[in-house]
Write a structure and sequence with these properties.
Pfam families: Radical_SAM, SPASM. The chain is α/β, with parallel strands linked by helices and 397 residues long. The chain is 41% helix and 12% strand. The structure holds iron/sulfur cluster (2 copies).
Length: 397
């Protein structure tokens, strides 16, 4: 009989979250809400060992992420090591710190590809949502990336504030010469879960934006690929999260904790392995954290008897936990889930809130003014809020 470990294929994609430090404060950040309590960072030698172990197992792609990975001054050394091992490497960045000299040094180290995030096509909203004055800097960085011949992906997280600008976001990416534009509808974890009431669009707003994307795609006709990442709440279609738990993807958090996805750290009762103490092989094949939701044995009877289970793997465990309190539940976005009503209530809440906002309160805070975030009920991702939320459950600012 084959054991679970023997049936498991090795990881293909490693994401190295080099640091949780970041100069931006995005209201939808996917870093854990308590990130400020995980201050330790692996050193250069540990990261190199992890990359070597993962490559030896068969991993082929390595993303450098964070926080802001450019805050690590060993980034060039790590890229060179990874490239030397034969990884395809990509940098996922806000752009802060990507000077021309650094972009050239990373090119010399062998970096293959850069993903640059924008929050919106307007300076006002970009800066408002990240609580930083970074729009013009990002525009300069896009020029540097193109001038050095990197393939460039622009990424924009979509929500109620910027969905009406989707056409302008596409035009901005086109003007920058992006090869790909990823319009990633907000996934409600981490800080986005905290801010879900303010960020949640109505189904009507999503459909309008999707219509613009479809029309613009036809106009672009292969010059720039526009990826619309499905809003699973509205589509009522569970996503095949990470192509299955512990199937192809490993995230390594700054302190060495190995995770099957960015958000899994907040799931209770799971001992995730730390790569300071364990090898990548041990963690991937034998740890409780990676074994917990592998395969189909853990599934509820709803998923376990469903023909879709081999395609969507029962959906997202983090979403199941956040919405239902049970990480093993059927993903609540699924129409077969007994908890689907909770998602419908959130969408109905967005409709009701917009009906109120059509009165005196402007739904689009397009001005970067003191107090705008509090008025909108938004909590910025920052150290102070992270510490306070970890201790008291409330954010001071
Ligand atoms: S989402 Fe914003 S705050 Fe979070 S890591 Fe990315 S740039 Fe930094
Ligand atoms: S019941 Fe489970 S496997 Fe079937 S579609 Fe819903 S989430 Fe996917």
């Amino acid at each position: 009989m084959r054991t679970a470990a023997a049936a498991t294929r090795p990881p293909l994609w490693l994401l190295a979250e080099l640091t949780y430090r970041c100069p931006l404060h995005c209201v939808f950040c996917s870093n854990p809400i308590d990130y400020a309590q995980h201050r330790q960072e692996l050193d250069t030698a540990d990261w190199k060992r992890i990359f070597s172990e993962a490559r030896a197992l068969g991993a082929v792609q390595l993303g450098f992420s964070g926080g802001e990975p450019l805050l690590r001054d060993d980034l060039e050394e790590l890229v060179a090591h990874a490239r030397g091992l034969g990884f395809y490497t990509n940098l996922i960045t806000s752009g802060v710190g990507l000077t021309e000299a650094r972009a050239k040094a990373l090119k010399a180290a062998g970096l293959d590809h850069i993903q640059l995030s924008f929050q919106d096509s307007t300076r006002e909203l970009n800066d408002f949502l990240s609580s930083s004055r970074t729009f013009e800097l990002k525009a300069r960085v896009a020029g540097i990336i193109k001038s050095l011949g990197y393939p460039m992906v622009l990424n924009c997280v979509m929500h109620r504030y910027n969905l009406p600008h989707v056409g302008r976001i596409i035009q901005m990416a086109e003007a920058f010469g992006a090869d790909y534009l990823e319009l990633a509808n907000t996934q409600y974890y981490g800080w986005a879960w905290l801010n879900r009431t303010a960020l949640m669009p109505t189904v009507h707003e999503l459909r309008e934006a999707e219509g613009v994307v479809i029309a613009q795609r036809a106009r672009l006709d292969g010059r720039m690929k526009v990826i619309w990442v499905s809003p699973d709440y509205a589509d009522a279609k569970p996503k095949p999260c990470m192509a299955g738990w512990g199937a192809v993807f490993m995230v390594v958090a700054p302190d060495g904790t190995a995770l099957p996805c960015h958000s899994a750290r907040m799931l209770p009762g799971i001992a995730f392995p730390n790569l300071r103490e364990q090898s990548v092989r041990e963690a991937w094949f034998h740890s409780d954290g990676f074994q917990r939701y592998r395969g189909q044995a853990w599934m509820s009877s709803t998923c376990g008897s469903c023909d879709e289970r081999g395609h969507d793997f029962g959906g997202c465990r983090c979403q199941a936990f956040l919405v239902t309190g049970d990480a093993a539940a059927t993903d609540p976005v699924c129409p077969k889930s007994p908890q689907r009503g909770r998602i419908d209530a959130m969408l109905a809440g967005a409709d009701a809130e917009r009906a109120c906002a059509s009165g005196a309160v402007a739904p689009q805070p397009l001005r970067f003014v003191p107090g705008a975030a509090q008025q909108a009920g938004l909590v910025y991702r920052c150290d102070e809020n992270s510490h306070a939320l970890g201790k008291t459950g409330a954010a001071p600012c």
